[in-house]
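Review form for a predicted model. The reviewer records the input and the model, then writes brief findings.
Reviewer: anonymous (R2)
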Amino acid sequence: MPTTLPVPIEFSLPEGWLPARPEAFDPGVAFAAVHPAPDAGFTANITVDGGFPPDAVTLTDLADASVERLGEVADSVEVAHRRELGPDDAPALSQRLTFSLTTGDTHRDLIQTQVYLSMADVEDPHKRAVIRLALTATAAQHDSILGEFQEFVRSVRPDTGEEA
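Model under review:
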């Protein structure tokens, strides 16, 4: 069963991407979309999840925890790149993870790009929510669709309930 996000957001999917059943992904995923063209039997996907971390937990702590969780299911995982983004009042962090996964007889080299966005709670602006956006694709396909994911990330904004 899909979860709900800690704060309402709105976004635009890149052209051709299709909404998917979030329950087909990791527990806690609130939204998922799939790329229309699988690569070597793997369908690239975008997932969205989030929560209200304790005040002392940093975006780096959350990113480290993601690496640990992925390491529990992957054959190997490496942080290929990480950087902090955004102003102090709306910090963000991006990281690129490379990992190998074996399912049955199939071995895959995958890349996951994650973006963590810190957002104020709409009901209590002193409360901080974190939204995680993730693109997972084969190593061969990742770079060719990264721009589409970046387009998706740029479209994410708080849903204020007002018409634009």
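Findings: The chain has a mean pLDDT of 91.
Further findings: The first helix runs from residue 59 to 73.
Recommendation: see findings above.
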